[in-house]
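Entry 14. Structure prediction run on the chain below.
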Amino acid sequence: MSPLAIRRQIGQLLLAGFDGVQLPVELKALAKEFGLGGVTLFARNIVEPEQVADLCRESSLLMSDIPAWVSVDQEGGRVARLKSPFTEWPPMATLGRSGDDNLAEQFARALATELRAVGVTLDFAPVLDIHTNPKNPVIGDRALAENAKDVARLGSVIVRTLQAEGIAACGKHFPGHGDTSTDSHLELPLVEHPIERLREVEFVPFRAAIAAGVATIMTAHVFMPALDEARPATLSRRIVHGLLREELGYDGVILSDDLEMKALANDYSVPESAVLAIEAGCDGVLICSGNHDVKAAALEALVHAVEDNRLPMTRVDDCLKRQRRAKERFLASRVWPVSSSAKALRQALGREDHRRVADEMARFV
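Output returned:
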């Protein structure tokens, strides 16, 4: 494969964040040179629904041959990038307290309707971590429940419903971020459970999501010495490939969490993490800040790793095959929203029936 062809392939491994409410020229330049797997939206990118729809449409067309993912963290509760006039959902712990599978299905269907209306194609939800540690500063009420069976059952309902409505779901954060006492945005959490406990508890919701056909799974930046004494989960081939891919039999798309989070960035440069994550078995990496120099450096590091035979091209091809298969599943027949139909767009958001679902969930806050 020619050097130019390699560069055009490598960019498809990146889901990129950016600053501003329009696509920056620097991101467009990266997509032109390397290709791009997709973008991820944050509150800083959001003004109003019509602008979001325009941004999603432009983002999806960054690649002429393969549509780009347009992704977002829209869980509900404190992790929701899309605010009113979108429906504002209570935290997911309310679904666990309700114990109501039908309510979880209604929530996921309404959520998918609103995401689809503006052109989001991949939602980084549901959280499959189990709220086993009340002192956990980063998961807490983002988790569906305090026990594995409830998280597995409700998580599977959300996965199936989102995906039946055309939104790719993402189970997170493997191999489990529920029993941590520190925030991986700030430092590397330590989980000291033996592998037998992890198999019996933390892995249970992920097995259920895999059985439900979840399109993507996101890794956790956690350190589990029982699984790997040297590397955090995202960068560990023993964990990503050995456990998630081989032991749990997952054949979908594996994505890293944001490589700029300090759990990794305190010890690894972003370019180094990008190479290690793909080596470990991830099919794509998230780099979420607006620093385009960091993204370019990460892509160059991946190119050099291929050219130096550190990263076999067969590993890259494997990533691209899974990405392409998922995109064919969710993006091939995509009908993009028409931003000029502002009335129709607004009517899809914050609907009365959606608010009733949110109100029912709020009974269990």
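The first strand starts at residue 14 and ends at 16.
Filed with the rest of this week's runs.
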